[in-house]
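Today's session is about reading a structure prediction critically. Students often jump straight to the picture, but the first step is always the sequence itself: look for stretches that repeat, for charged clusters, for runs of hydrophobic residues. Only then move on to the predicted structure, which in these notes is written as discrete structure tokens rather than atom positions. Here is the chain we will use throughout the hour.
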Amino acid sequence: MVGTSQSGHNSKEHGLLLFLAPELQLALAQLQVNQQLSRARAGLLALTEGFYKCGCIKKEAYEALKNRYSEKITCSIVAEHAKPRTVQEVQEQTRLRKLEVEFSRVISQWSSMSTKNRNSWLKEAEEYKDRVPNAKLVLALATENNGPVKQETLTGMT
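Below is the predicted structure for this chain, in token form.
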């Protein structure tokens, strides 16, 4: 059964309790594993496929429901693996997030920055262009504004 009596579209009146034969239980489990689906989505996908093949639902409804029920579940072990494992990795990720914010600030203040500050940020952006997305934006901004930043003259103009 999917949903609760308060969940609107998926209310209890739309629910269906099924007692599956062992062969169908195994088929459902196999569909779950093969498609990386939750049990409910695997069951709903199987019903959708069956109703479509029987001619009970139109192609448009079938495709929309198939897309909805084919959404894979996320594996927690993959998410755990993506997390940093050492203090150094955590510190590096924190530093990169701070740099992302700093590069955002640099982009918003680029036109009012001195040439010296721009050159300093360009060096920083060059160093982090492969690890911090906004670093590439700073480099593109500098290139867009007539190439490399020129040295200021005595009057402060570029």
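Discussion point for the tutorial: The two ends are 70 Å apart (CA to CA).
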